[in-house]
Inverse folding.
């Protein structure tokens, strides 16, 4: 899984560098997504849209091959611990994680409100919004494999497999797309919203699937993904001790 996601990261970086090149030397092409038509003539934008949308569809399918970070929401991956867990401790964990999740959302909305203000004031345009979105797209896997500021500074969870806000990633990637009224942008943003709402609904209904104290599957000793091989040593530089959650 680590190798698979490392390859994905490399591909996303290539996509970002390609879009950045287009932005620098063929700016009108970087703005053309605003006129995107799904059933129009085939263009590189169709391929890019398919890649971006396909990543979200993988998370919508119940038996897709993604990390346990996303699949832990499923009943089929849940494994009750050998020793009964304390329900009160679970509820305390949920309350703590919810508070931290709200902080993440607040930070993200504040950051992107600056982007929105710059766009509405005509300081930046649709090309910059497009470039920023693709930058977020690449950064998502950087957060998974290398370093995540939200994990280290706010959530303080052990890893992505234990992350309370893991499936917020697509919503965060496509937040800037809300500013642009087009099929390309809004189809991505609102599909991401569906993923976010589903994640939150399942978390509210089945919180026991998201805590290592009540789900043995997401404990370090049972992890099959091993995607923290780079991230864990780097994180130790920024934290004095391992997080307890």
């Amino acid at each position: 899984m680590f190798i698979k996601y490392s390859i994905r990261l490399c591909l996303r970086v290539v996509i970002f560098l390609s879009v950045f090149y287009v932005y620098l030397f063929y700016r009108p092409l970087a703005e053309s997504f605003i006129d995107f038509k799904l059933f129009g003539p085939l263009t590189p934008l169709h391929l890019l849209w398919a890649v971006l949308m396909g990543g979200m569809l993988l998370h919508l399918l119940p038996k897709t091959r993604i990390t346990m970070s996303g699949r832990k929401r499923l009943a089929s991956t849940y494994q009750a611990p050998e020793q009964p867990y304390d329900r009160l401790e679970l509820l305390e964990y949920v309350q703590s994680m919810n508070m931290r999740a709200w902080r993440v959302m607040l930070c993200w909305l504040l950051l992107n409100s600056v982007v929105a203000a710059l766009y509405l004031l005509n300081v930046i345009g649709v090309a910059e919004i497009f470039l920023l979105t693709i930058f977020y797209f690449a950064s998502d896997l950087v957060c998974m494999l290398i370093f995540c500021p939200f994990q280290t500074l706010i959530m303080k969870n052990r890893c992505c497999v234990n992350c309370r806000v893991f499936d917020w990633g697509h919503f965060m990637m496509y937040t800037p797309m809300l500013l642009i009224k087009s099929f390309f942008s809004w189809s991505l943003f609102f599909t991401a919203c569906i993923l976010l709402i589903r994640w939150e609904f399942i978390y509210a209904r089945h919180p026991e699937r998201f805590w290592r104290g009540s789900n043995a599957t997401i404990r370090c000793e049972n992890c099959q993904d091993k995607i923290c091989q780079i991230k864990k040593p780097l994180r130790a530089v920024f934290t004095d001790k391992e997080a307890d959650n």
